[in-house]
């Protein structure tokens, strides 16, 4: 009668596989220990990231007299930038009134900060029209306009949303839906912060005063 030797063979193979696995595990453990011993001691290094908001940049526009105005004209002093249009029914006038009140609070220092009101409606807002409109709120607010390409470039640089909206009650007429932030740039033309158009005049004046003092103390950071 022939004996069945298959189980014995499987048992031997299992023991061999187990022994091989143990040897591989032991070798891996020794290798890991060697690698760890070669690494420098102390806390793990941390990665630091820095960056700045991509708001602002070069622009070239026209004032009421037709003179070309660029960001370089405000180098060395803070610049407050506000976008809107002269046919704006309430939001833009409210924002400009806040800016005017803040400038009044600055007194003699009002001239130490540049303030520009840039139209988002160059089709209707000529440089002369927007210039007179801005100045009607305060003498230190400079109204700027330009070609459609000029305005498209500056609104893109400041990440401003602006879209023409047809007037349903008056066919052929339109309004402009747009973002209403005020952007504060430092003396180097770098973005510092922004405010909603409804910001309190006292808060805005305080921020402008701080920006002026920062520019007077040296290059803006």
Give a description of the structure.
By secondary structure, this protein is α/β, with parallel strands linked by helices. Helix content is 38%, strand content 19%. The protein has helices at residues 6-38, 91-106, 127-135, 148-157, 201-216; strands at residues 60-62, 68-70, 79-84, 114-119, 141-144, 162-166, 174-178, 182-185, 191-195. Strands 5-4-3-8-9 form a five-stranded mixed sheet. Strands 1-2 form a two-stranded antiparallel sheet. A two-stranded antiparallel sheet has the order 6-7. Strand 4, helix 3 and strand 5 (141-144) form a beta-alpha-beta unit. The longest helix has 33 residues, at 6-38. The radius of gyration is 33 Å and the shape is globular. It starts with 5 loop residues before the first helix and ends in a 5-residue tail after the last helix. The model is unreliable at 1-15 and 17-50 (pLDDT under 50).
């Amino acid at each position: 009668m022939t004996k069945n030797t298959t189980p014995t063979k499987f048992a031997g193979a299992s023991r061999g596989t187990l022994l091989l696995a143990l040897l591989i595990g032991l070798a891996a453990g020794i290798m890991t220990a060697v690698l760890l011993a070669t690494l420098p001691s102390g806390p793990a290094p941390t990665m630091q990231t820095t960056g700045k908001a991509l708001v602002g940049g070069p622009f070239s526009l026209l004032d009421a007299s037709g003179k070309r105005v660029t960001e370089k004209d405000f180098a060395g002093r803070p610049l407050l930038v506000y976008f809107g249009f002269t046919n704006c029914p309430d939001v833009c006038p409210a924002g400009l009134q806040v800016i005017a009140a803040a400038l009044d609070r600055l007194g003699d220092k009002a001239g130490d900060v540049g303030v520009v009101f840039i139209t988002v409606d160059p089709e209707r807002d000529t440089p002369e029209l927007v210039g007179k409109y801005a100045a009607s709120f305060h003498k230190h607010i400079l109204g700027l306009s330009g070609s459609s390409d000029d305005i498209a470039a500056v609104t893109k640089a400041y990440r401003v949303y602006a879209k023409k909206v047809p007037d349903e009650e008056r066919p052929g007429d339109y309004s402009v839906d747009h973002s209403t932030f005020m952007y504060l740039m430092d003396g180097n033309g770098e973005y510092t912060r922004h405010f909603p158009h409804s910001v309190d005049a006292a808060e805005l004046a305080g921020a402008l005063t701080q920006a002026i003092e920062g520019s007077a103390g040296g290059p803006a950071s």
